[in-house]
Amino acid sequence: MALASGTSSTLLGRPASTARPHLAVSSSAASSIRFPRGGGKAVSLRVSSRPAAAAATSGSIAPAISLTEKALKHLNKMRAERNEDLCLRIGVKQGGCSGMSYTMEFESLAKASPDDSIVEYDGFAIVCDPKSLLFMFGMELDYSDALIGGGFNFQNPNATKTCGCGKSFATSKETESAASACNN
């Protein structure tokens, strides 16, 4: 597991001293990740996956949440239509026919909290809160412009059950237990 924090003064437009940690996982068969919490404590999650499940962006490091080229292209198009420098906040909430559903919205990067994880792709940032990341770690976001079934598609290795529309899912009891221990 590799946890890297930015040292460049240009990282996300913040001085190096205020840069947030970027989460990444090695492409080995099993990895551990720790999520920061207030009070100096951390919640740990052990993840097992096939090395080919997540696409590496550089070397052997794979992002916590990855984007396909189609998804990145469509997100950049949507952001350009708004003429604002926005990031994508992605998360999970209770609800949906399988128990949990995905949330996505554009927001200013300045609204990200210190506990949020930030993943960058060619100048586009994805922000995710620690509790949601427990349910989405290793997920790939894709986009399809198909007439039927088009839109954003979530390829989530943590989902044990997905509804027909693909926007609602269920996870294992281990993931739910780890998330309930997280106070964020």
TrEMBL record:
Residue span(s) of domain Core: 65-167
InterPro entries, per the entry: ATAP, ATAP_core_dom, FeS_cluster_insertion_CS, HesB-like_dom_sf, IscA_plant_cyanobact
Top-rank taxon, per record: Eukaryota
NCBIfam families: iron-sulfur cluster assembly accessory protein
The protein's name: Core domain-containing protein
Family according to the record: Belongs to the HesB/IscA family. Ycf83 subfamily.
